[in-house]
Design goal:
Layout (H helix, E strand, L loop, with lengths): L1 H45 L15 E2 L10 E19 L17 E7 L7 E7 L12 E19 L1 E3 L2 E3 L1 E2 L1 E6 L2 E2 L4 H4 L4 E3 L25 E5 L5 E2 L3 E2 L8 E18 L17 E7 L7 E3 L16 E18 L1 E3 L2 E3 L1 E2 L1 E6 L2 E2 L5 E3 L22 E3 L2 H97 L5 H29 L8 H12 L4 E6 L10 H22 L3 E8 L3 E8 L14 H11 L3 E7 L2 E9 L3
Parallel strand pairs: 26-27
Antiparallel strand pairs: 1-8, 2-5, 2-9, 2-11, 3-4, 3-5, 6-7, 9-10, 12-25, 13-21, 14-20, 15-18, 15-22, 15-24, 16-17, 16-18, 19-20, 22-23, 27-28, 28-30, 29-30
Helix pairs in contact: 1-3, 3-4, 5-6, 6-7
Length: about 650
Amino acid sequence: MRHLLHPCFGVLLMLWGGKAHGELTSWIPEMRALAAERTALQEKLSAMPAAPEVQLTQRLGWHSEYSSSQDKAEWVELNLGQAQQIDSVVLIAPPPNGATVGKGYGFPIRFYVELLDEGEDNERTIIADHTDADFPNPGLLPVVIPAGGRMAQKVRITATRLCTTGERSFCAFGEVMLLQGNENLGARLEAIGPNAVKASSSQGTRPDWGRINLVDGHTVLGPPLGTRRSPTLGFRSVPTSEGRPYDNPWVEIDLGTVRPIDEIRFFPAHPPQFAHSHGYGFPVQYNVELREEDNEEPRLLSTPQSGSYVALPGDNVVTLVGAHRARFVRLQVLDPHVSNGSVVLSMAEMQIWSEGKNIATGCDVNSPNSTEQNGWSRAALVDGFASGADIVDWPGWLAALSQRREVEHQLGVIEKKRETLTQQWQKNALMLLIGVAVAGVIMLLLWLQRQRRIRREELERLRERIAQDLHDEIGSSLGSIALIAQDLLAESGQSPQSREDLTDIKDIAAETVDAMRDITRLMQSERYGTDDLPTLLRETADRMLRGIQHTLDLDDHAQTRRLSVDRQRDLMLMFKEALHNITRHAAATEVHITLKQTHNDIILTLRDNGHGFDTTAKPTGMGLTNLHRRAAKHQGRAEITSSPQGTVLTLTLPLHA
């Protein structure tokens, strides 16, 4: 059985190590593929516009009521008043400000977006359905959903699984943009009024939260800027001390001819020297005046300040919409911006949109006073640059940021796969290392076993040689001594003392030959008298009990081969010591010997009818002491009971160590 275990261990180790090695081998190409994919995505990411600086604004967005159920449906709906062509819907999370903790605060985990036509029974078209799986947290980057230029009056976003913080679930958006070409149709809704935006629920304190905040232009993204560094800062009036009399500043663009006007966009300034001041110089309150002729009475264009509350835009674009005609467009300050105790009007760029184009670029700019140095000038108000970079169109910029979000998410997924594969590799490497260690231990044990077997075989050969030498050399010499003594006894002329000495010499030599024969017989047996022990007991008893009637009752089922060599040897020595005591001291005429086996022990009993002895008296020789010592050596026992009618010696040895 032992020989069969070695290949079994080998097969198990090969399977275990082979599995770990196979997984490690497959790990290498997988990691290479992930590395190549990551490199490609990083190259793609480097060609995309960088994530914009986070814009902090007081108007955070819309926030639903809190719910104890994450699966409660919440929705928000934007009503354009009439059907419009929509190219894409853009969803943006609130900025991290105030109670909004973390990026992507309140963005729904599962949701869908649908377009609705006019009327109560209007047709619904779902343009995005993310209800089957959790949508990755977009952070502070936009989610652009293509609408394909479909016509719709309403856009509804329905959350089917809410964001959860602690035990509270809710939904929140910072801004929803409805793009048509280069225009954001959502900017028109604030002019329509708060009823243009409806929601399943709404909570929060103004100006932080409110339905109308979804279309106020205040986003975490700020203005759409490109990668070209701006050579100018924009327009700025000459700062006037707040403690001195001043006229509220103004700035005006002359389009050259009367043109239709669809939108007016203001880009607040953010010069480096006022990096801490978002929306530097943007007025707290203002009017926008339109004139077709130079001397006519201006018409006032409604502004976002006509709503129910006021909040400065920071660096965000301020968009005013409406169908108008004008040549002159003037921004008149009512309540000025004050910086470091100075009244100032500044603006990075002012755009006037007509039929999908910005017609203000390069036009004349008028103002009663202007800073014409250090990057400030009237011309910088219409040069196509904000304070930091060039101004780009909304659609392409938002689409690129949305793609950046998707690429960053893919990179995150790849990184998680790399971490998982690395952990799996470490696990498999550990398994392989353990397998190698186990194999090494088993090989060491097998080597040690082989070495023990070799040493045992060497000892066996040495024992055989010693036994043969004892038999051939010492045995023959002792036999010769006995023959010489016997020959001398046969001759006449010796004195009685000499004859007695010669008799002792002959008897001792004969006894020594018999003892040596027993020893060599055990030594020459392959397993020290495997099944010869009963025979050896019988022969020894017959030899040592000459002239004494004796019987042997040996159990045929006694498995004496299960006794170790050392144990058989000591059993024989104790047996011979007991027989010697009987012949020398007991004066017995009958001896009965039994050998039997129990479940765990071999029991040898000698019973004689001699005169007995006092077992409590101090022994005069070493015989009894040796009996107890040899039995205790093998965790056995020697038990003696004696009386004037005879003595019983019971030797018990365990079969196993």
